[in-house]
Amino acid sequence: MVAGDLVQEHLRADTGAPDDITVGRKTPELEGAAERCAEPTYDAVKTGGAGETDTGSRALEQEKEVPPDEREAMLPNGGGGEAEEKQGTKLETKLYPRRFAVLFVFSMYSLVNAFQWIQYSIIANVFTRYYGVTNDKVDWLSIVYMVVYIPLIFPATWLLDRKGLRLTALLGAGLNCIGAWLKCASVSPELFGVTVTAQVVCSVAQVFILGLPSRVASVWFGPGEVSTACATAVLGNQLTQTVCVCSAVIKDRPLLPPSHSQAVLPSSLSEDYSYKQSIFNLMKNKAFLLLLVSYGIMTGSFYSVSTLLNQMIMSYYENQELNAGRIGLTLVVAGMVGSILCGLWLDHTKTYKMTTLIVYGLSFLGMVVFTFTLDLNNIYLVFVTAGALGFFMTGYLPLGFEFGVEITYPESEGTSSGLLNAFAQLFGIIFTLIQGKLTTVHSP
């Protein structure tokens, strides 16, 4: 099963509610092929008789012959099968070894940016003493990543759709490099303003990074690897390379598509493609709207906990700065394992909805346990509960991306991922400000 399977299953199960899934951006030729594939079955049902039996038998035979994960009939235009037979051509797909280099470089590139997001908050008590500022100002060094992302995600996804993966990645890598060098120049107690400026530059770079995992996975990897590849790309962001490496390795797309779902899509945007219309299509997709809110709450909670973890630990465990950092590391490493396992599970089962519900439930349970065991004066118990929380909450990040791609196919992967991240940032801002206020005024 590849991107688009879930769309067709939904339409077959409930033909009376097509508004839940938006399918667009077909060329006239592909639409004609799809209609020709559908006409014989429709006529047979209408007229009945022997023709119906023959057509039904042939359909069943074709269904058995095609592997479930490559079922071309589930693609928006039927995989172009009939049109290809008439023209004597066949959709050609190929997996390139280069895809692993692209994935590795992107993961490292994402790692460097994610490290700069949380590097101040994880040792907030150290930076408040060094720069002579309050905790809320250090918190804003993390929150600025979320604030900047929301307005800039729309031009960033437009750039990804119009100019491709390579230019977007290079722009993000360049800004990330500039921000890192500015931080090196801000190592002085009176240069907190330079630190803030550098963090803003890095936060702009993040806009060109967070929406790329699902695009990298779908454009370069086959149907049995997509979820694992997306999880690995997200893993790089959770681990915490350069512009030259990105330039040498990352390309917009391979010469031949890796799967049939990519093969039937146009290699470049049609002249009548409208980015605004794509956004409207996603906003009319009820399933995607539910995912937006749920993903935003889940990931926003994770952002809030990551930002304020040092303050929460230091409130209950004095002189435990080192262990506070180790707890943060435990949360991240457990999340890495969860990301990979979720990706492997999805590639094997494609059970997006069931897996989502299970992870939501376990994440909520983990958050409750973490909250009510934080003040038990047992630092080792905090390691365990933080690890469990990170495993499920971070493990859901690639699942949310891939689920979004599935239920919005064939809309752009960058657009759906960008909107998911925008809602995550929005909820992250809200939760961090509220929790930061509660941590300052009351106990965590």
Task: Please tell me about this protein's structure.
- This protein has two domains: 27-87, no CATH class; 98-267 and 274-441, Growth Hormone, Chain: A (Up-down Bundle), CATH 1.20.1250.20.
- The protein starts with a helix and ends with a helix.
- The chain is mainly α and 444 residues long.
- The model is unreliable at 1-53, 55-87 and 237-248 (pLDDT under 50).
- The chain has 19 helices and no strands.
- It comes from Etheostoma spectabile (orangethroat darter).
- This is Major facilitator superfamily (MFS) profile domain-containing protein.
- The chain crosses the membrane at residues 100-120, 140-160, 287-305, 325-345, 357-374, 380-399, 419-438.
- Keywords: Membrane, Transmembrane, Transmembrane helix.
- One of its GO terms (biological process) is heme export.
Keywords for this structure?
single chain, 444 residues, mainly alpha, Growth Hormone, Chain: A, 2 domains, 19 helices, 74% helix, 0% strand, globular, disordered N terminus, MFS_trans_sf
Topology:
Blueprint lengths: L4 H9 L14 H20 L2 H16 L15 H7 L10 H21 L5 H8 L3 H29 L1 H20 L7 H16 L4 H9 L5 H14 L3 H7 L10 H4 L11 H9 L2 H31 L4 H29 L2 H22 L5 H30 L4 H29 L3
Helix pairs in contact: 2-3, 5-8, 5-9, 5-10, 5-11, 6-7, 7-8, 7-9, 7-19, 8-9, 10-11, 11-16, 11-18, 15-16, 15-18, 15-19, 16-18, 17-18, 18-19
Which CATH top level class of the largest domain fits? Answer: Mainly Alpha
How would you state the average pLDDT, rounded?
74
Beginning-to-end CA distance, first to last residue = 45 Å
Radius of gyration: 24 Å
Please give the count of helices.
Answer: 19
In terms of structural class, how would the helical and strand content be classed?
mainly alpha
Strand content: under 5%
Query: Helix share of residues?
Result: over 70%
